[in-house]
Amino acid sequence: MNILLCCAAGMSTSLLVQKMEQAAREKGLEAKIWAVSADEVKQHIDQAQVLLLGPQVRYKLAEMKKVGEARGIPVDVISPVDYGSLNGKKVLEFALRLKQ
Amino acid sequence: MAGFISFLENRVMPVAGRIAEQKHLQAIRDGIILTMPLLIVGSLFLIIGFIPIPGYSEFMSGIFGDQWLTKLLYPVNATFDIMALIVSFGVAYRLAEKYKVDPLSAGAISVASFLLATPYKTMFTPEGATAAQEVGGVIPVALMGSQGLFVAMLLAVLSTEIYRKIIQKKIVITMPAGVPPAVSRSFVALIPASAVLLVVWLLRILLENTPFESIHNIVSDLLVGPLSSLGSSLIGAIVCVLLVHLLWAIGLHGAAIVGGIMSPIWLTLMDQNRAAFQANPNADLPNVITTQFFDLWIYAGGSGATLALVVIMLFRARSEQMKNISRLSIGPGLFNINEPVTFGMPIVMNPLLIIPFVLAPVVLVIVSYLAMSLGWVAKPSGVAVPWTTPVIISGYLATGGKISGSVLQLVNFVISLLIYYPFFRLWDKQKLAEEQSHAASDQVVNM
């Protein structure tokens, strides 16, 4: 399971990455989770199975969806509540649901 | 307030989205990002060159000779001073990528057209002479740096537009089968490249017959002049900060959106200060407003100057929720990342907390601008300190080693603390009441 996260600079999403990795370990799930800035998404998306956007860059959803759909990769925005509370477990479950 | 939020969400957000999505603006922003690592490395050398310890300069020349500073600043000349050249390549590359045409060729053509627009001459005062003379056969360094930034951006966009239109119309040289693909690719680049260079060449010849004399002069007189006086003004700064925080109020990354448009101007202003600082570290620098002005003196702890808010929360929160948020936020907050606060507390879409979130930065802009323009606090020296540098340190470094930069950050911290405090208390009380009534109703259910 490869999950790519993106926000403006890839900084605040990298906080969430740590929490999601922890949640994945607790689930016994093999996952590669990493965060990049919105400009770098194109270089990374080929290794991803799901792309999640931080809510502060949700204005990029249309653009990112186009990039994702061309490769059959689901793209969505993380819920602001889970994002703010750095709820790695919930965001991980969200990513897994998207993938199905 | 609810009506205002829905106005932001329904009217402002689509516009902001469209601006942020606009291909050319995006390419300009991404192209400029290419220079940032170089500027930060150049800044390191600048800082080492001007460490403000009495006797430092004498000490260094004692060890490395009289020319130590000139030699130490070689990397500054190869980073700050070629900003426009890098942008010329970067913007064209990023734009070509968006059009799915060969970005490398587009970048090369853009650099060529930028140089084609630049007269190969400079003014030079020979030793012993009193007047400067025009010298030919040189690429003027001044125009390769921030002075040439807008020309580089504009020509990158123009040349890439011509390039991709010709490619997409398939006006290309088609080679017979059997010719290696690399060879035919190099021929493909020929027609668009000649069209681009022809246009820029004609433009230059045309302008040489006007009082402007060159593309650089017309752009600097008609575009950069007005834009930088607008961008360097207090009103301009207040408008930018208001926009940034109103966008954040609906949960959009305001700094990325507004900064995307303003960064060429702020970068130009920043480099003007850098050049003045490099010539004389104690000179009165030309601009208050630079990239660092916002990043380091206004956005302490992240947009909204939330470091003060997090500190209040850490010590004064009574509700469990706010205690949790403060523990999550303080670490990233010290490095000016505040999404746990904006989305977790939350400030986004929260009519109560949006008030101090917008108010504090506006007050800080006014206070900082006045303090710097009145000369109480050193202006940002053009040293490109990364925005993730913690306050106090960043204020010292960005002013080229002046304590007043750190003092202003402390003052700003206290101001934002006072502005946030009453709003925080109200919100915390509300959360505490919610938690208590939840606890009470849980007890009822358990019985």
From TrEMBL, chain A:
Any Pfam family the entry gives: PTS_IIB
GO BP term, pick one: phosphoenolpyruvate-dependent sugar phosphotransferase system
The keyword Kinase is assigned to this record: yes
Keyword set, alphabetical order: Kinase, Phosphoprotein, Phosphotransferase system, Sugar transport, Transferase, Transport
PTM-bearing positions, type Phosphocysteine: 7
GO molecular function list: kinase activity; protein-N(PI)-phosphohistidine-sugar phosphotransferase activity
Domain named PTS EIIB type-3: residues: 1-100
PANTHER family: PTS SYSTEM N,N'-DIACETYLCHITOBIOSE-SPECIFIC EIIB COMPONENT
Protein name (database record): PTS sugar transporter subunit IIB
Organism: Brevibacillus gelatini
From TrEMBL, chain B:
Biological process per Gene Ontology, one example term: carbohydrate derivative transport
Pfam family, one: PTS_EIIC
Domain PTS EIIC type-3 intervals: 8-423
Parts of the chain that traverse the membrane: 32-53, 73-92, 104-121, 141-163, 183-203, 223-243, 250-269, 296-317, 352-372, 403-423
Gene Ontology cellular component terms for the protein in this record: plasma membrane
A Gene Ontology molecular function term of the record: protein-N(PI)-phosphohistidine-sugar phosphotransferase activity
Keyword field: Cell membrane, Membrane, Sugar transport, Transferase, Transmembrane, Transmembrane helix, Transport
UniProt membrane topology term: Multi-pass membrane protein
Annotated compartments: Cell membrane
Coiled-coil residue windows: none
NCBIfam families: cello_pts_IIC, lacE
Functional note: The phosphoenolpyruvate-dependent sugar phosphotransferase system (PTS), a major carbohydrate active -transport system, catalyzes the phosphorylation of incoming sugar substrates concomitant with their translocation across the cell membrane.
Listed name of the protein: Permease IIC component
